[in-house]
Amino acid sequence: MSSLVSGQVVAEHASRDSCWIIVHNKVYDVTDFLDEHPGGSKIILRYAGKDATEAYEPIHPPDAIQNNLPIEKHIGSVDPNTVAKVVKQATEEDKRRQALMDARPPLDEILNLHDFEAVAKAVLPAKAWAYYSSASDDEITIRENRAAFQRIWFRPRVLRDVTSVDWSMTILGCKSSLPIYISATALGKLGHPDGELNLTRAAAKHGVIQMIPTLASCSFDEIVDAAQPGQPLFLQLYVNRDREITKKYVQHAEKRGVKALFITVDAPQLGRREKDMRMKFVDDGAGAKVQEGQKDVKKDQGVARAISSFIDPSLSWKDIPWFRSITNMHIILKGVATPEDAILAYEAGCQGIVLSNHGGRQLDTSRSGVENLIDIVAALKTKGPWPNPNFSIFVDGGVRRASDVLKAIALGASAVGVGRGFLYAFSSYGQEGVERAIQILRDEFEMNMRLLGARTISEVVPEMVDASALRSHAGLTPPDNLYNTIYQPLGLASFKTKL
């Protein structure tokens, strides 16, 4: 429509038979989409004939509605002067959280990444904390990701001139001020109104590489537009069942200057994240299909499953040549866990792998990335000289200290991904929180490298660590008091309160 749609007209379409909603000042007819909505129909009908932006924005990428609705269902722009402003009443919980925000520790009292996590746990809405912090099943792997680093011990060298130490490096041809990159985490606006832009702006100021998530709350172009000229960016990709959508997305990213494509390969179906599921982020009555061909699967299983039904479970090794044909970006497989698959990735012509278990959110009791690192490096050494300048091994999961990064690098990692640490930093303090987190890691790198006797990252070698206890999964790990203080144990089903 060329003319503006009045709010009164939109309000006339407030039923299951004719359901219009407003999102970002645009009017959409979602009548035919009600039963296909991953979160179920009831949550949409709650906003029928109204402005749904506030509910939509935190848990949807900005272009989700445009991409999922046929163009003929895009009614037009709403006349903002005719839309009744909904005044949100602050609940007691909102007031409690605001009081906690006002009482946050000043940033100069935040001394480590655990501090950010503790503040985020206190100030985030319960559903946001559940989504960010949850892991699959019994949450054994998420705890093991952290514990594994404590089973690796340093063997420092002494009497080396460490007046000057340099922890900068090159990651996939891109300069980085730290031997880490910001790993992709979804739905940043659940934690802060600016979402992933906090990461982009902080990364630009401090020379750190950001990986853009497919399921960001900010649009891909919004993130790239916020970057500085020449700022290196990577892209994390969930592969869509519609390969044309994937192709268009990948090639657009390459045109916008993204340097590397990290294809997530460990999520043909998302794990059961029970903290998230218990929060009922999506509607109880939702009944859309989780994946193509499956029936009678409810969507009352948390926000993670509600937003991920497009992911293709048929993705396989036969698709790698196709990806190589549609892009010249570096192709990295994110989620490799075995030497066998590492070799296949190498032979398929990929430029690297990420040893990752999705932050403990997929197959529970999977080994940590850093434990898998030893076997995978050994396997890749059989394929030629090592380190191989044409094939990188990255590790993520459980990283909270610069010492964790140095342990992984000593065991053969090219660089390390940090996800939740930066997520909690901006959820707690916005962009300034991310900058403080980077500074904390920088200070830790300086101290640890001096004490380790390494002047550059290339001097962090296997002989500097003792990983002999890494495979001992019970009884040999020193208690991590900071982590254990923050970690929220799983709960059980609750009885209804008697009236």
Automatic annotation (TrEMBL):
Main localisation: mitochondrion
Q: What class of enzyme is it?
A: oxidoreductase
The UniProt entry, under SMART domains, shows: Cyt-b5
Record's catalysed reaction(s): (S)-lactate + 2 Fe(III)-[cytochrome c] = 2 Fe(II)-[cytochrome c] + pyruvate + 2 H(+)
Signal sequence coordinates: none
List the GO biological process terms. lactate metabolic process
Mention one GO molecular function. metal ion binding
The FMN hydroxy acid dehydrogenase domain sits at 105-470
What's the cofactor?
FMN; heme b
Say if the entry is tagged with keyword Transport: yes
Give the Enzyme Commission number.
1.1.2.3
What cellular component GO annotations does this protein have?
Answer: mitochondrial intermembrane space
Q: Which residue intervals define the domain Cytochrome b5 heme-binding in the entry? A: 2-79
Subunit composition?
Homotetramer.
Q: Which family is this sequence assigned to?
A: In the N-terminal section; belongs to the cytochrome b5 family.
**PANTHER family associated with the record:** L-LACTATE DEHYDROGENASE (CYTOCHROME), S -2-HYDROXY-ACID OXIDASE-RELATED
Q: What is this protein called?
A: L-lactate dehydrogenase (cytochrome)
Record the organism: Gymnopilus junonius (Spectacular rustgill mushroom)
